[in-house]
Amino acid sequence: MVGTVIFGLVLASSCHSLASLSQRYGRPPTLDVVHSLLTPIWVPQLRQRWRFRAHRSQLPPGPKTIRTGVRKPWLWFQELTKEYGDGDVVYIQMGPTPTIILGSAQAAWDLLEKRGAIYSSRPRFIMGGELLSGGMRGLMAPSSAFWRRWRKALHNGFMQRQSESYRPIQNLESRVLMHDLLTNPKEFRTHLERYAASVIVTVTYGRRVEDARTDAVVRANAESMSRLTSVNNPGKFAIERYPALKYVPSIFAPWKAEVLRQRQKDINMYLGLVNEVKDKMKREVAVDCFTTYLIDKQENHGLDDLELAYAAGSPFGAGVETSAGSLASFLLACVKFGQGFIPKAQAELDKVVGSDRLPTFEDMVSLPYVTAIVSETLRWRPITVLGGTPRASIADDTYRGMFILKGSIVIAPLWSIHLNENDFPDPHRLLPECFLEERQYPGLFGHSAFGWGRRVCPGLHLGHPSVTLNIARILWGFNVSLAKNERGENIEVDMLVNLFAFSDGFNSSPLPFECLITARSSKHVQVIEQEFQDALRHLKNYAADSED
Ligand code: HEM
Ligand SMILES: *[C@@H]1O[C@H](CO)[C@@H](O)[C@H](O)[C@H]1NC(C)=O
Questions:
Q1: pLDDT at residue 246 tops 90
Q2: What family classification does the UniProt entry report for this protein (predicted)?
Q3: In which band, very low, low, confident or very high, does the pLDDT at 233 lie, cut at 50, 70 and 90?
Q4: Which of these, 92, 231, 326, 435, could form a disulfide with 372 (CB 3.0-4.6 Å)?
Q5: Residue 203: which domain range?
Q6: Tens digits of per-residue pLDDT, 412-423?
Q7: Tell me: the pLDDT tens digits for 55-101?
């Protein structure tokens, strides 16, 4: 769901951005009583307009016209970054809101990390965030006391030490993934998604997912995400332009009654899932998980019951597609560039791990080359192409002589940042070596895949090890190469890594593609089989049907 929010915003605001002032501020085609409700919100907008005029000459450079109907806005943002000024701060006016696009790691770091006090809020998501979610979804919440409580709960729940307690779950599910890849390699995408969903649901609610296509918790969450996606399209609803419509009573506004009905469904689902865990805690059969942690620390975090239930639901929206998509990008990289890096990685794995067991988390410190492949995969094709949900600034600011108006939307697209030739000279090639060399880059990781500052991904210590362990194990056990067609010819890869072979939306992951995944030797097959059987025994503790 990091995913679903902004795309609509980009599209929709660009649709009415060319409207003239009189249209924008003109009388809406609604009842006069509604009209008078709107008056208060004009005032700050007009004031903003005035301050904007006063600083016009200091604004960052940008295009005069706005492109509409862009399906992959990050490609357009990247063009803007290359075209304007020094390139890494671009100004666009989308609808009434000034928007700043940050196109380099340094600019994103300087503003989102170092000046986090100004740049960590969110724009309003009136339909999705306020009406549908009642302000309970922290990812869309502006900086506020609520957001700080929510953020603290997520941060504490997934900080390094706490996340390490979930490693056994990742280890066991990863053995299932290796077995799935061995026995049914063609369906690799389904296996990656099951792995990611099962880790998240087990970590969150203490019960695993055996089939993501039929699992009740996965389906309920997916429905909730699609309710959010369908309303998070501001162009669809006048309310995003006229926020006071929010206060029209439901009996005069069937659309509002409908959104509130949808909200009730989410509430029932999130509370229901937490209540199941509470019930197991009473019967002393609950396994430790994020929800038991939230319940134990409820007073400490100051969350009420509903806030707690929504907080528990956060990892699903933010953690499944990002983890599964990163692993899909890795397989795509193998198909295109594997000949360059797979043999080196396998030599390292054979030396450090041998062929009698799967690699473990403890091995990672001794696997610098494999670790570099992981970093480079996250750099090469970041799933969160737009750098997460857009920020909003809460104060006027000046950066390198450029004026950034309070209330600006600020987007730091990872697509621009990770493919910026100043930092990565050959950006579309996967070159793990660049993570083994000394190189100037702000921050600790040498990439920005998990974001910045106060909004940095709180699931980093869960998501990163998931991606790392599975990349290491796939390289240990399998050769991954081009699939062949029925005539035995290689299926062309340039099509596969083509920029348009990635999905539209807020996040972007590879569209379905084919590849050949084959075990390296019968010895490797045997180890995968054994460790899988062993995992099944342990995973019984987390079975979904042991619930009653
Ligand atoms: C490889 C996996 C992952 C990647 C690449 C990733 C990436 C990101 C990025 C780029 C952001 C935006 C950060 C910013 O605005 O500066 C983000 C936010 C977030 N991520 Fe992740 N993430 C991953 C896995 C996870 C997991 C497993 C969880 C579950 C605990 C999670 C939970 C969140 C949440 C809740 C936010 C919103 C934070 C806020 O608004 O304060 N992510 N993630
Ligand atoms: C795996 O690929 C390497 C070359 O990268 C090759 O030497 C080896 O024979 C392959 N193994 C199998 C089992 O296909």
A1: no
A2: Belongs to the cytochrome P450 family.
A3: low
A4: 435
A5: 5-420+433-547
A6: 999 999 999 999
A7: 777 899 998 877 766 778 888 899 999 998 676 999 998 777 899 99
On whether residue 288 sits in a domain, the answer given is yes
Q: Which atom of ligand 1 is nearest to the CA of 315?
A: 29
CB 504 within 8 A of CB 70: no
pLDDT tens for each residue of 494-503:
766 777 777 7
Q: CB-side exposure of 96: number of CA atoms within 13 Å?
A: 20
Cβ 463 vs Cβ 315: under 8 Å:
no
Which of ligand 2's atoms lies nearest the C-alpha of 338? 5
Ligand 2 binding pocket includes 479 (Cβ within 6 Å): yes
> Any residues with CB less than 8 A from the CB of 408 and at least 6 apart, and which?
97, 98, 99, 100, 392, 393
CATH of the domain at 106: 1.10.630.10
Helix H or strand E encompassing 329 = helix 305-352
Q: Quote the CA–CA distance of 245 and 238 in Å, as a whole number.
A: 8
Whole-number pLDDT of residue 180: 98
Q: What is the mean pLDDT of residues 131-137?
A: 94
Q: Which of 321, 330, 315 has its CA nearest to residue 153?
A: 315
- State the pTM of this model: 0.90
Residue with tokens 């340039």: 494
- Rounded to whole angstroms, the Cα distance separating 444 from 451 reads 12
427 is a domain residue: no
Query: pLDDT > 90: what percent of the chain?
Result: 67
Specify if 401 maps to a domain: yes
Cβ 344 under 6 angstroms from ligand 2? no
Measure the CA–CA gap between 134 and 136, rounded to whole angstroms. 5
Q: Is the CB of 379 under 6 A from ligand 1?
A: no
Q: Are 88 and 107 in contact (CB under 8 A)?
A: yes
**Percent composition of the chain: helix, strand, coil (DSSP 3-state, to 5):** 60, 5, 30
